[in-house]
Predict the structure.
Amino acid sequence: MIDIIFETERLVVRRLRDSDLLDLMAVYGDADAMKWVGDGQPLTEEECREWLMVTRSNYEKRGYGMFAVELRFTPGVIGFCGIVHPGGQEDAEVKYAYLRRYWGQGIATEVLRGLIGYGVGTHGLSRMIATTAQENAASHAVLIKAGMGRGELRADDDGGFTQLFEYEVPKSAA
């Protein structure tokens, strides 16, 4: 099995390993960063272990899932990205999260462009979505720079709203 999924000018994106547990906990255990992810709560060690198992299952079922992101010339995981189907949804959804010290450096945009290319080129995905908190302007900018368009604003069960972003392969490229 090939570990490296794709590379960009500055980054290497690879499959998750069991040894990534502490890195998962560093990113997804950060309460300030997690206010933008899921229910807004940091993940526990047990939830991170479960995530590794789910990811392995996704690799087997779909050939893709969540991946680790490393700087090309500096060892160590700086964050995670991937293509998933939360709750079994039909649409492939792109996700990403990084250590806060790497925010604002264009890394999320660079990886997301590569991730979209990987989904289209390797897996034939013609449509991918992303969802963000309505007020997460930084992620909105990343998604737009990466080639996604702003979609509908969805009402959540808790009274809040989720902003949808969409990427569709241009008809001329299909």
Summary: The chain has a mean pLDDT of 90. The first strand starts at residue 4 and ends at 7. The longest helix spans residues 45-62.
